[in-house]
Amino acid sequence: MSGRILPEISDLIVPPENLRGLPILVQHGEFDQKLTVAHGRRSQRILSGLPVALDYREYAMRHEITAKSLAEAASWLDAQILRADAATATATE
Fold it and tell me: Is residue 50 within 8 Å of residue 19, measured between CB atoms?
């Protein structure tokens, strides 16, 4: 959902090797009047430089949650749960 990575926390981010494969979804409204899309795109640039599994999406919306963005977030979360369940099942076999 619309947000930003504060510059003040850049020194607090864990070492990149600790983030390897971490799934991250960033959704941002192109017409967000509270946190402009530039914040979302900056987050995308920062996270793209890390070994995370980034999924960045922009929507034709303001600072809000639309049916489409909510459905896509729910679908993304479902996929993460299925992956985690599959990995757990494989690890216990």
Answer: yes
